[in-house]
Amino acid sequence: KAFNAGVNYDRSFDAVGGGGRQQFRVDFNIQPSDNVAIRFNPSYETSTSSAQYVTSTSTLPYAPTYDQRYLFADLDRTTFSMETRLDWTFTPTVSLQLFAQPLISSGDYLAYKQLAESATFDFTTFTPGTGVEAGSEVFCSSSICEVDGEQYVDFDDDGVTDFSFSDRDFNVRSLIGNAVLRWEYRPGSTIFFVWQRSQSGSVSTGDFSFSRDLDALFAAPAVNRFIVKVNYWLGL
Question: What is the pLDDT of residue 15?
């Protein structure tokens, strides 16, 4: 057929913690002629996790987890990608294949928390507050606060922070693509002309914005590679 399409929807739930994942994918297949085939596969996925590992520390030893404190967070993640393929056969000896996949993904870390006891799924959630810098110290109005992209935790609730780590929110944008021109210049002998291109970038925003992230993707630094591969059939 010159055109056909399919839709796929997947959904799953975590047995513990209330997290889950859902993905919506569409497959478009276009064949305008016998020697040309085009495929578009856009995919949109969201997922939540109630126990995304963040870091650990031995600051103020905590006996229920063997004097190590293990920090986790609720994580909301959104990802969009689209695979694109083109197969074009010019003659029985010359063909072109194109592939491209743009991808944008965001991760928003929401509630930071500490494992309450080993071998359990129990957590102590930190209450967010405001932070104030005073010299080399940071004071929180509650058990956790953010200052200049850094999360500060007050484990013993005395107002003085005991531990800090960088905020884990992220936005990732990437594009990979390649083009391969294949020429069979004599029976069994071929030359491949290859162009590979990749672009990538990341920031610590955390929220998903399709138009903003797509613009940032195409503005990201690019790396281009050109490769020539020659095969010669000896026919001994």
Answer: 85
Chain segment 9-31, per-residue pLDDT in tens: 999 998 888 889 999 999 999 99
CB 29 within 8 A of CB 5: yes
Amino acid code (one letter) for 54: V
DSSP letter string, 82-146: EEEEEEEEEETTEEEEEEEEEEEEEEEEEEEEEE-STTS--EEEPPEE-EEEETTEEEESSSEEE
68 DSSP β-pair partners: none
The pLDDT assigned to 1 comes to 81
The SS3 call for residue 64 is helix
Task: Give tens-digit pLDDT for 39-54.
Answer: 999 999 999 999 999 9
Interatomic CA distance for residues 100 and 86, integer angstroms: 9
pLDDT over 90 (residue 135): no
What pLDDT does 136 receive? 81
Query: Which residues have a Cβ under 8 Å from the Cβ of 236 and sit 6 or more positions away?
Result: none
Residues facing 199 on adjacent strands? 175, 222
Tokens of 35: 């020697």
Cα gap 220→84, rounded to integer Å = 20
**pTM beyond cutoff 0.90:** no
| Among the listed residues 72, 26, 83, 23, the one whose alpha carbon sits nearest the alpha carbon of residue 49 | 72
Q: Which of 55, 79, 49, 84 is nearest to 68 (CA)?
A: 55
What single-letter amino acid sits at 122?
D
Q: Among 80, 119, 98, which Cα is nearest to 195's?
A: 98
**Helix, strand and coil percent figures for the chain, each rounded to 5:** 5, 70, 25
CA distance 153 to 156: 9
